[in-house]
Write a structure and sequence with these properties.
Number of helices of chain A: 12
Largest sheet of chain B: 2 strands, antiparallel
Helix content of chain A: 25-40%
Number of strands of chain B: 8
Strand content of chain B: under 5%
Radius of gyration of chain B: 28 Å
Shape of chain A: elongated
Helix content of chain B: 40-55%
Radius of gyration of chain A: 27 Å
Distance between the termini of chain A: 55 Å
Shape of chain B: globular
Largest interface: A-B, 62 and 60 residues
Oligomer: heterodimer
Strand order of the largest sheet of chain B: 1-2
Structural class of chain B: mainly alpha
Structural class of chain A: alpha/beta
Largest sheet of chain A: 7 strands, mixed
Strand content of chain A: 15-25%
Strand order of the largest sheet of chain A: 3-4-1-7-8-2-9
Number of strands of chain A: 15
Chain lengths: 527, 682
């Protein structure tokens, strides 16, 4: 008994579907029958609710091939070579939670009469799979602003219902009598039995009872007929009947990991080729009590107006959790062998959100990360466009890669350069000098300010200086607040203050002056 | 339309001869046989054609059948055979009502002579009232509604089947797997969803049952629900049930799922399937057998295993059927252990025990179903969900009438508290409608970072808001019915029990004031419908609806909201002078809604109570009321009117009434049964 449980824990995440032993060697097998030589290309989308905290999310500086992953990206930094980080994507102005979901997959918030990009792709590639597409989420509907609850829209622009329960998704994928021959046999014998039961009642019954029983029997007969008529179209040599149903999740983390496991399995068994998954409604009010946080995510995401040290720490903890789930997805997809590569190699993954700054709701610099799809994407790069790019251009480009015959999408008729290594106009930052001076305990430093990579110490900043060890800035809350350090993250500044040297690194503990090199000025609010 | 007319010569049967089954307590004292196949009788159609149809032809056909458009959904040209005439009981009842009060034919049509009126009335009285003998409804097995299926499965398993979805404030999701997967039930001919007679089993539903049962049984055998399995098996010592325990589970589970005794014979095949199996194999076999039970018609339908008795004879239902009738009426759930034990012992029908059980059941939290299912359907409270997009607010507006109904249904207060009461239920979201009285609320402290939250209601006593007492002026109900027509129609149908036909499709908007005109909305409205045909219904609807003009479209009472409102000038005109006065077709006059309420609980009291009785009885019987139920309704309504009884009294009366206690099995085995042929044309 106990070894059994241990083995399960080993084989699946917390609550995910259990893969039978022979398929543990998936790492060198493939679900696809050998007959099919070209692997299908899949499309998978992971949506992050409530935008981002820009100081910890944005990549600043660096170049296309030589860049530093931001603190929030640390959980999936190990997949750098499989990622294509896009920057300067979005629209000008501000976004509401409710319309940001259209931007994310329908290209523009005003594109309300068209299908979202995943649905157009599903129309093209999903035709001969058991399930054309899966639209998944984690939480209930938010009827107050219904747009917050959906990222996938049908051809009329109407929202597509989503499913949140991993067990139901598993059953739909792998346990339906129409898909599982064992289930079919079971069902047939059950129908025999209940029909016998009905017939024995029939013999004793009065007129009205008999009418009811006849009705029952005719439904049973019809179901039997339907089962007989199925010609199972098994797509792969893989017997889905050997998969074990996921356990009921105990918390959000288990629920999401379980769902991600299922998504990977669904794509890998070619049960479906197109999946969208929302980690939450776009204004998610979920409470992450399993992380020890008791305020709503949406409230915390307004980190500026609801500023407190604890609130910011809580928000970053939640954000990191979202990033860990992206890592979990990538890791899972890489562990499944598909033809001559991994499942990730043959899947275009789109991760991100429909708005940028989670407090002031800017629609510029929204987080967009592409992963995998090595035949269509050139990964391992950071592409920051010179000008703001509408997300519709990205979608149009993806549509073309998937062979969808369109000339424009969401008002964009130009494809987006740079995804497959093609030319694009990169963002050029004005150059600046960096230096550091120390006299007594007085320290002056000029360089790019950034947050610590370790968000557990998010009150720690660094100023990067060329060819020198970065200067560590660890000041009182008063200084942090008065000089608005977080606001200047990513930009070059001159800091004046006092501090010491510690193990070869300068440490500033008190600030007296802050100058922004390019004159960026924070608003009147502190934070 | 389903009218069963069984007007037959009475045969007095020999009592001893007609009690072939011990399981039947007794046959009615009258020993009436109800015969469906008839002795020759003068056809109803021939008299109709001779004396009634000519009147209809000259006065009614032009609008109701022969014109370009059939008015009010009534087509008299379709009524000529025995069958059609019989089935149109409701139509005839309404015809008599309308010609007596003079609203038909409309003013612009030739009037009926008194002798013509009398002839129709007399014909109706003879054919549809005097000739129809009271008898219970015909026995008919009924498929469980989705709601009942959910509760019954929960009771059999000992735990609910739920969907995994994260809960967050202000979001909504369906928690119950059963409700999520089963198709939504349409209301049946009775107007309630528990009448599934027009909602048959389909392959889709069977598929979903199968899927739900698989999940249910996997859960039952999981570690998590060990205690539920142990409730059937006894203490479980190891991972696996012993063969003896498996048999025990099977027999007990079958008895529970079938809601009655199960003979060893009936489960023999299942027991054989378990024989000689051990451990995993045994569990697998047991699960398969339990699935057979939960997929069998006996579980899915109610009443299939009621012991057969003599046909065409009213019989008391047996104790198990009685237990089911009672528990599905009050709880929408199967009988609990106490009821089943009493039924097993054959004692449930004993008056003291039976009445004691009713009281116990009404006190049980499960009786909340009366408000949440019956009340919600009766008063169409689900409409309130559309009033606000903000779930906590919509929830507050909707839970308010539900809590109020639960109070009226279970607190033994006079039925008329439904119309006027000093008790109500509010929370912070509805408090703004109750200035003064809101001080009684115990304040709620919001958690940091939570914006809007659903809150439980608190019971308060109305002191400062006399215009808020009773169901009719709850903000959610006023807001879901915007405008005088919807409000009037709702009161007429839901409170007074009148059935209105759909309005004609070509009614336009109420015209704006023309230049130089300064008519109030009410004046413009009256001009808009100043037409004899419209007046037939609107004379009844409008006085009721306009009586609520002092409440705005959000349900706020003008007196309090005028100051705060940024109203447009035009709105102010109608708001400053809400004309709530009116006169009912029966003659009573009133100045405002408070006075109308008084009329409803005094001179209209009989009518209100009769409607309450009819609605509750149709829900209790899960079927549409027929002409043969009329005397049962009359009896209960009269008693309640005289005693100024409570809803609890009403439940007792209904549960002890003839249609609830008895049934008739139809006997004609050769003829295909259609619901409309009860009498052979001679």
């Amino acid at each position: 008994m106990s070894w059994h449980i241990d083995r399960r824990t080993f084989l699946r995440g917390a609550a995910g579907p259990l893969l039978p032993l022979p398929f543990l060697n998936l790492m060198n097998g493939s679900a696809q029958a050998a007959a099919q030589t070209r692997p299908p290309l899949r499309f998978m989308t992971l949506f992050k609710p409530n935008g981002v905290h820009p100081p910890s999310w944005n990549i600043n500086g660096g170049s296309e091939f030589d860049f530093r992953m931001s603190p929030l990206m640390q959980p999936f930094a190990k997949h750098k070579e499989d990622l294509l980080m896009l920057d300067n994507m979005g629209d000008f102005g501000f976004s509401s939670h409710a319309n940001s979901t259209r931007r994310f997959l329908a290209g523009h918030h005003q594109n309300t009469k068209s299908a979202s990009v995943d649905q157009l792709i599903a129309d093209k590639i999903g035709g001969d799979t058991a399930i054309r597409s899966l639209e998944l989420t984690t939480e209930g509907l938010f009827p107050n602003q219904i747009g917050c609850s959906y990222i996938s829209y049908d051809k009329n622009g109407d929202p597509i219902p989503r499913e949140s329960d991993p067990q139901l998704v598993f059953d739909r994928l792998f346990r339906h009598p129409m898909r599982d021959p064992n289930k079919r046999a079971e069902m047939t014998s059950l129908l025999d039995r209940v029909a016998d039961d009905a017939k024995s009642l029939h013999r004793k019954a009065g007129v009205d009872d008999r009418q009811t029983l006849d009705q029952y029997l005719s439904v049973v007969r019809e179901t039997e007929k339907r089962l007989q008529n199925i010609r199972a179209t098994e797509r792969s040599g893989f017997d889905v009947g050997t998969l074990e149903r996921p356990l009921a999740p105990a918390n959000l983390n288990e629920q999401v990991e379980s769902m991600i496991d299922l998504i990977a399995l669904a794509l890998w068994t070619d049960s479906t080729r197109c999946v969208t998954y929302m980690l939450g409604n776009s204004n998610s009010r979920m409470v992450f009590d399993f992380l020890g946080i008791h305020e709503q995510h949406h409230y915390l995401s307004h980190f500026f107006r609801n500023f407190s040290r604890q609130n910011l720490d809580a928000l970053l903890k939640i954000s990191l959790w979202h990033m860990e789930k992206f890592d979990y997805l990538l890791t899972r997809m890489k562990s499944l062998t598909d033809h001559n590569g991994s499942l990730l190699d043959h899947t275009v993954v789109l991760y991100g959100s429909g708005m940028g700054h989670s407090d002031n709701h800017t629609a510029t610099r929204i987080p967009i990360v592409l992963a995998g799809g090595k035949d269509v994407l050139k990964t391992g790069r950071y592409v920051r466009y010179a000008q703001n790019q509408q997300v519709g251009r990205l979608h149009l480009t993806l549509l073309k890669h998937f062979g969808v015959d369109v000339n424009s999408f969401a008002g964009s008729s130009d494809t987006l350069g740079g995804l497959d290594g093609s030319d694009y106009e990169p963002y050029r930052e004005r150059s600046f000098e960096s230096w550091v001076r120390k006299r007594g305990d007085k320290i002056e430093v000029q360089g790019r300010l950034r947050l610590s990579d370790d968000l557990d110490e998010a009150k720690v900043f660094f100023v990067d200086v060329d060819e020198r060890t970065s200067v560590r800035v660890e000041v009182s809350f008063r200084d942090f607040h008065d000089f608005n350090l977080a606001y200047h993250c990513g930009t070059p500044v001159t800091l004046v203050g006092t501090g010491t040297e510690k193990g070869g690194q300068l440490l500033m503990t008190k600030l007296t002056e802050l100058h922004s090199l390019f004159g960026k000025k924070p608003g009147t609010q502190k934070g | 339309m389903e009218i069963r007319r069984t007007v037959m010569p009475t045969l007095t049967s020999n009592r001893a001869k007609s009690v072939p089954f011990a399981c039947y307590r007794n046959i009615l004292a009258t020993g009436t046989m109800i015969l469906c196949a008839s002795a020759p009788l003068k056809s109803i159609a021939s008299e109709f054609q001779e004396s009634i149809q000519p009147i209809l032809r000259s006065h009614c056909f032009s609008c109701h059948g022969e014109g370009d458009e059939v008015h009010g959904d009534v087509d008299f040209t379709e009524l000529s055979s025995n069958e059609q005439i019989n089935a149109a009981y409701d139509t005839w009842e309404r015809v008599v009502e309308l010609i007596i009060d003079g609203s038909m034919p409309p003013e612009d049509q030739p009037k009926l002579l008194d002798i013509e009126k009398e002839r129709i009335q007399d014909w109706f009285q003879r054919e549809f009232i005097d000739a129809v003998e009271a008898h219970p409804g015909f026995f008919r097995p009924r498929r469980l509604s989705a709601h009942e299926y959910r509760n019954t499965l929960h009771s059999v398993l000992g735990f609910p089947l739920e969907v995994t979805v994260m809960k967050a404030e202000q979001t909504v999701s369906e928690d119950s797997l059963v409700m999520k997967l089963l198709p939504t039930d349409p209301p049946g001919p009775s107007g309630f969803t528990n009448d599934t007679s027009a909602n048959p089993l389909s392959t889709t539903i069977l598929d979903q049952y199968s899927y739900l049962v698989d999940i249910a049984l996997d859960e039952l055998f999981s570690q998590r629900y060990r205690s539920s399995l142990a409730a059937y098996a006894g203490p479980i010592a190891s991972e696996w049930l012993t063969p003896e325990q498996a048999e025990l589970v099977l027999v007990r589970f079958a008895a529970r799922a079938f809601r009655r005794h199960v003979s060893p014979d009936e489960v023999r095949r299942s027991l054989v399937a378990l024989a000689k199996k051990r451990e995993a194999e045994l569990h697998q076999a047991l699960k398969s057998e339990l699935k057979v039970i939960l997929m069998s018609p006996t579980f899915i339908y109610r009443g299939l295993r009621m012991p057969p008795g003599p046909v065409n004879t009213p019989l008391h239902v047996d104790d198990h059927e009685l237990a089911e009738r009672l528990s599905y009426f009050l709880w929408a759930d199967m009988p609990d252990d106490e009821l089943l034990e009493l039924a097993n012992a054959g004692r449930l029908h004993e008056p003291v025990i039976f009445d004691g059980q009713i009281d116990r059941m009404l006190e049980s939290p499960k009786a909340r179903n009366l408000a949440e299912d019956f009340g919600v359907q009766w008063f169409s409270l689900n409409e309130i969900e559309h009033v606000s997009n903000n779930p906590p607010v919509a929830d507050a507006l909707r839970s308010q009438p539900i809590d109020f109904l639960y109070y009226v249904f279970t607190s033994d207060v006079p039925l008329m508290e439904l119309i006027d009461s000093e008790t109500t239920f509010i929370n912070m979201h509805t408090a703004k409608y109750y200035p003064g009285d809101r001080k009684q609320l115990v304040p709620h402290k919001k958690t940091r970072g939570i914006e809007v939250q659903s809150l439980p209601n608190q019971r308060i006593r109305l002191r400062d808001n006399p215009n808020r007492g009773g169901l009719l002026t709850l903000p959610g109900i006023l807001a879901m019915n915007r405008g005088p027509v919807l409000r009037g129609t709702w009161i007429l149908e839901r409170i007074l029990g009148e059935h209105l036909p759909d309005p004609p499709a070509n009614v336009g908007q109420v015209a704006e004031n023309k230049r130089g005109e300064n008519l109030t909305f009410r004046q413009r409205f009256e001009r808009h419908r100043d037409n004899a045909t419209c007046a037939v219904c609107h004379d009844k609807i409008d006085p009721l609806g306009f009586a609520l003009q002092a409440y705005d479209k959000e349900g706020a009472y003008f007196g309090q909201s005028l100051k705060k409102r940024k109203a447009t000038e035009r709105e102010l005109v109608t708001m400053e002078k809400p004309d709530s006065s009116g006169r009912l077709p029966s003659g009573e006059e009133f100045d405002d809604f408070g006075e109308l309420k008084k009329i409803l609980i005094t001179s209209q009291r009989d009518r209100v109570i009769r409607n309450i009785v009819r609605q509750t009885m149709a829900f209790a019987l899960c079927r549409r009321l027929e002409s043969h139920d009329r005397s049962a309704v009359d009896l209960v309504a009269t008693k309640l009117t005289q005693s100024n009884g409570s809803f609890r009294d009403l439940v007792h009366e209904i549960a002890n009434s003839l249609p609830f206690q008895q049934t008739v099995r139809r006997g004609d085995e050769t003829r295909p049964v259609t619901t409309r042929t009860q009498r052979d044309p001679s």
